[in-house]
């Protein structure tokens, strides 16, 4: 019952939940043990099971977003002059303050009104927060709390001019390739039998490098992409395009994956190592197995937030489906960045979308935010409201209108990532992994009037192929649903989903479909249940909508 109590806090609604299991909504792959109140998992024929996604989010999930004290206040320019330099100077000034023990320097508060920015505002120092006094009318608030009341005060930043750029960019240092971070030789994993998806333990071959491994060390697990694997999943023979454009067949070595993990236990007698976050791809001797090295953790910056703002891009009125000479992203995060939060943001009219998380970024929470009415051509590489190419990020209570890919991942995404309680309306394309084998995404209570698709996209784009594996659709609703998987070494799951199941036009076999047409009432949110199992019910408090106070 505590779990159900915290569910109400989690989504802000008097949600339809049940305290006891019904005859409908039964699942095989994961279920709640009523005696222990813990989730238990069953693997497929290869041992692959749904992994724990609860490590996604700020500081690894279940940690309250900081309430950072205001140290600098700005007011709108009385003559509507360009504010780029003035706001950036304030950001830089706070960025020069000493870091507190909590890694925080302070917040810049933009008082209610309108600010015009012709460039990009850069947040590149730890512990700096950019905050407004209100984000205006926010459909995410209405959808998940029943409150569409416009904030009594609204801080609006307008991206002016015709330059293509993000309005706000959070940027960290460049991260070198993992091979340059290594401070040990390779340790080979025992991968016969394969180490399955969802595993947190594996055995290793003895080596001098293994002898020096210790609990607490950070390692990089390498999963190769040999030509026989690419051939066996059909990615070296994608069909030609009808328009004659080039299709790039996948190549060996271009789809290697590396996973940063921490050692939490070593059993020297059996050479068994336990890691903190589950594996999201299987490691199979047939396909090169796997190995790992110890690394020196690269420098990342963090404790950065953007809060309570309305972000708007100028465009040519009347050219809503054609003008592209204006700002692309409301917020872009890139480089060596971790432990970031984006909260209560409404973005309007950008080419790409609201939040764009690039590779190498990790531990981000985006919550209670909406992307409305993008302005661009309605075609590829545009209108991705909330996109993540990084890892361990959580999108919570988000809303998208008139996008193409409202909630999506890009190429070779490492995961785990979570979209939880998300709504997409008036969609032009689909929701889901978009291209080139993004892995480890949970779509938890995602609802759309369009399509959710997990499939082999074949020669779409320039040869997108298998868009994603270790994808879980949990209690989702859509007009149409597709969920397939490669015939070997991977799986995808659709559990408790409602909509019309349709077949993919491209090669693949059905993923796991369970409780189709009936939501899993016993486990309304997989992310929340996994988080509570791992960290306790108090972790649910961290997921509440925020309440702001202003000086």
Automatic annotation (TrEMBL):
Keywords: Signal. It comes from the Eukaryota. The keyword Ribonucleoprotein does not apply. InterPro entries: Pectin_lyas_fold, Pectin_lyase_fold/virulence. The keyword Signal applies. Residues 1-19 form the signal peptide. Gene3D superfamilies: Single-stranded right-handed beta-helix, Pectin lyase-like. This is Pectin lyase-like protein. It comes from Basidiobolus meristosporus CBS 931.73.
